[in-house]
Fold this sequence. Notes:
The chain is an alpha/beta fold.
Amino acid sequence: MAEERLKVLLTRRWPEPVERAIAERFELTLDSADRPLSQTDLASAMAEFDILCPTVSDRIDAEVIAGGDRVKLIANYGVGFDHIDLAAAEARGIAVTNTPGVLTDATADIALTLLLMAARRAGEGERELRAGRWAGWRPTHLIGSALAGKVLGLVGLGRIGIATARRAHHGFGMRIAYYGRREADPAVVEELEADYFADLPGLLAASDFVSLHVPGGAETAHLIDAEAIAAMKPGAFLINTARGSLVDHEALAEALANGHLGGAGLDVYPEEPAVPPALLGLENLVLLPHLGSANEETRVAMGMKALANAEAFARGEALPDRVV
Ligand code: NAP
């Protein structure tokens, strides 16, 4: 088969069944130590491989893309592609694919994990117990917020936004509102009994919980800035499983410290794996290390989707998940 000769680089270790499947069809290179590649190594890879398979932890910028002209497909392991300079790729005739859909449920599960943990003060409680500071059950101990009847405002009602809303509405009795550039599919709106806001401040002012589900990138950078946070209800909660770039973390830390916000839950940060230091000491904040898609079934499915794109590329067929 023609595709057996194509050289594929995985920048990080992938689940073993996927690595095995890729190695059966392509000449596979991977770093057994699973260390992030430097920008220089990524640039060199552009001259050495036919297919580059990066993850969210690789910055595939214009300089990297200019590193060589052998790579003709960037098959990203993940749905978000704000770490890849699409214009630079397109200008050099490089196709970019992603892995939409297969991580929707896992990421929505993590949005609900953060929402529940923040609302019910689970992180605070666990830290207290482990530190030997728990003084026993009492009517006023670590009182959180109920979910039923509260408004969950989704910023972006795409795949993960909808899956999050479904869990919150059908599972926890929350009312659903959303902001987006356009109204969602009427069948989804009807199922969720969702209220549409054409303006973000309107959604923020109406929501008890706000959950972010738009992509990262220049258009959405600091969408949740000091002004947006001020527009949120006093005591409201902010949940972010989308991208760290969406939030001004200085402003968020300030609002959590001064009590304007009741709490927050974050899975993503602007310069991962760094976490803005202002966040670390805040008791009313739940911090997860980018676990959105981190379950076995999902991580295998993401790899198989990237492989399907690579196979289609090798056969000269239309790419199933082409971004550019
Ligand atoms: P999706 O189905 O494409 O949904 C994105 C939504 O955002 C769409 O409704 C889109 O609406 C809206 N949108 C895009 N640009 C916007 C803008 N500038 N202003 C307002 N709305 C905008 O994507 P998804 O699969 O739900 O994934 C969403 C994001 O989650 C990904 O991009 C990724 O960054 C993040 N994610 C994180 C994890 C994790 O591990 N924490 C895992 C998976 C995904 P229209 O384009 O129709 O206007």
